[in-house]
Design brief:
Length: about 280
Amino acid sequence: MNDDKTVSLRIDDRLEQYRPFFDSPWAEQIDAVTAGTKLADAVFALSVNWRAAANTCAMPWLMCQSSRRQWTTYLEKQQPFSDSFTAAVTGRVAGEMVGDLSKAKQKKLVHIIQTVGDETREQADEATLFRLDAVWRCLLDDPEFQLAIWGSQRIGYGSIYHAYEHFVRGCIALASGNPSYRGRRIHALIRDAGQLFGPKIAHDCLASQSVMAARLVRNALAHNGGRETVQLRGFPHGLVVEDNVVQVMASDTRGLFDRLKIRAYKLARQAVTLPTIRAQ
């Protein structure tokens, strides 16, 4: 590997941006709409693929939360050393100082020891407190982790669009009664979707500006090494481009999912009205 070469790399350094974004209520709604129809399996596959892609994009958040749970569980199972030490000392004092100190002085001494133990435990609790922001900052200091975040967003973006286009193709295949339908060209997909589901659905789900932009971004990621293509350069897509490299940020993957889930639901509702899809 040539160490002199660099690649433009931009990531969002805010952990909150990596919260999981898969929409479970949406999944329940589209499941309900397609239950008992030939579209049910395609919807299930779409949901699984989108959840997997969303979790890939949310990996930084999931890692930090998992670390916190493991650390908290571990600490809860441990008896603080200060508690063990305090209990041992007070028991020893009570047993060995009988006759040397009055009961009042024994009681006072035990109280002092317990107070010191409580203070020590508080200091220890503060020292072992899991600080999510500190863990996140530590991870961000690692160049390999930065590269992993950068790559996960690109992979997630492509996976979200791939799953969506496959779902659209599946809807057309079922509606047309042609299981081997491929529709390899976008114009053919738009044409066939329009004939089966109506021109408005075809436009919203395949030809609208936001979907076309996502397709061109996917093409740049899949077929041009992530570098901006001529077609993408002339199209309003809203993503950051640095040194001709498309930068997919956390907000971009979440935004793509939010836009496509609406269209997938709209297409499913229309598709299940067709006799070729309505019943299993």
